[in-house]
Design goal:
With about 475 residues, the protein is of the alpha+beta class. It has helices spanning about 10-15, 30-35, 55-70, 120-130, 150-155, 160-165, 200-205, 235-250, 260-270, 290-310, 320-330, 330-335, 355-370, 395-415, 435, 440-450, and strands at about 20, 25, 50, 70-75, 95, 105-110, 115, 135, 170-175, 185, 210-220, 220, 225-235, 255-260, 280-290, 310-315, 340-350, 375-380, 385-390. It has a seven-stranded antiparallel sheet with strand order 16-13-15-14-18-19-17, with helices on both faces. A five-stranded mixed sheet has the order 1-2-3-5-4. Strands 6-7-11-9-10 form a five-stranded antiparallel sheet. It binds flavin-adenine dinucleotide.
Amino acid sequence: MMPEIKKYSNISSFKSANKLLGIEISSEKEDLICYSFDSSGFKGVLPTAVAWPRNTNEVVNLVKYANENNLQIIPRGAGTGTTGASIPLAKEAIVISFEKMRKLLEIDTANLNVIVEPGIINGRLQREIQSFRLFYPPDPASLDICTIGGNIATNAGGPKALKYGVTRDYVMEIEAVLADGNVVRAGGKTYKKTVGYDLKDLFIGSEGTLGIFTKIRLRLLHLPADSTTLLATFTNLEASGTAVSKIVASNIIPSAIELMDKSSIEAVENYKPIGLPSNVEALLIIELDGNADSIKNDAEIIVDICNSCSGDISVAEDISERNKVWEARRSISPALFYIKPTKISEDIVVPRNKISTMLAQLRELSEKSGIQIVSFGHAGDGNIHVNILIDKKNHEEYIKGHEIVRKVFEATIRLGGSISGEHGIGITKAPYIDMEIKERELELMKGIKNLYDPKGILNPGKIFKAS
Ligand SMILES: Cc1cc2nc3c(=O)[nH]c(=O)nc-3n(C[C@H](O)[C@H](O)[C@H](O)COP(=O)(O)OP(=O)(O)OC[C@H]3O[C@@H](n4cnc5c(N)ncnc54)[C@H](O)[C@@H]3O)c2cc1C
């Protein structure tokens, strides 16, 4: 039964009461500011309140309260999203933060799965299951700061997606609170299931617009026996793209192929000198896992492919050298802020045999516009993080930067690609969604949103272009 709800009509009422229905809540300005932006750098509107529920029941009560008081609900993981998907766009909103729902509830070693609360940090989950020799592959570069709830809502990927797939491939079951406060369970305990429409798959990548995840069952694998890291350098950017295409077309599947262009190498070395090679146009970090014999065999094939593309290649000698290489890869994003204060980050994906064409077009766009574009990312998937570096206070640069975004998306779609490989649409890409999704498909998507959330209170203004 619903507890009696005390109606608060304005922010000051919340100030005197830091609990609503027994749930921790705040409307202090410093809290509201902290929850009004994310990694996109886009600042939203200060909401009415931020709440920290501790369980599903508290989420249900918050949603029912929001319904009765015409407040929007904005689910939020760690705010590492790069598209503004977790920020409030109206004052009449409650942000629901999952910082107090971080438990690893159950590890089922017999059936290889785990049940978690949505606020658990991806990296913590990975470390905890390692002691059971178990493995959760989705590894966004933000893994030490982002939550599993956010990963599901964005269908996050990472370097290991090349061999192991993305978040979607590991979600078995989701408990979610709908916009009317009802709790639903989608998916199940079994490895296979074909019963009706797959509502679980609809929640994945829904960016907090269809339901609020409160419990999740994830599929696990056994940890690979061994792994190794190779570093290939190229004096020609397009040659690195050709090497990626050739590796992907060969009969081996590395667990990761990550690309860093010259600008990202220089940015990392200026920010945190790691000793990456200089005087190269690009480098590839290639990881192999499996048993020692197959790794050795695959490494030989990769050396041959990289040499055929005029690349130099070396194997990381020990774990500290491997960690250094991966630390370099994970440092690119913060390093770029030392070049320019504003970074417009896109995460386009192209068919894997089109990587060098795309890299060449990005270089041309940068040369013609005079705006620095730094490219890096999960090249093995064709997923390139395109970072357009500007100072948004400089009006001319700001306009040019956004013109480049449109041109990058046009080139991507011409090559048969997609405007987002893993970050989602949020608000920053909403104006461009109809470049890729046609009218009828968009109508279907909007129809689904309307069915799940007829009052439009769940994370409104995200994914779809404002009409
Ligand atoms: C340095 C850096 C590196 C990154 N690298 C990668 C990468 O390699 N791959 C990648 O995919 N992304 C990457 N990202 C982007 C980001 O980390 C991911 O999108 C991540 O999945 C967001 O998780 P979060 O917990 O921060 O979610 P938030 O940013 O808080 O929210 C993201 C979306 O999830 C929704 N949401 C959050 N929790 C719930 C819930 N419980 N129920 C329903 N909806 C919810 C929000 O409403 C929002 O729509 C990177 C970001 C940074 C800053």
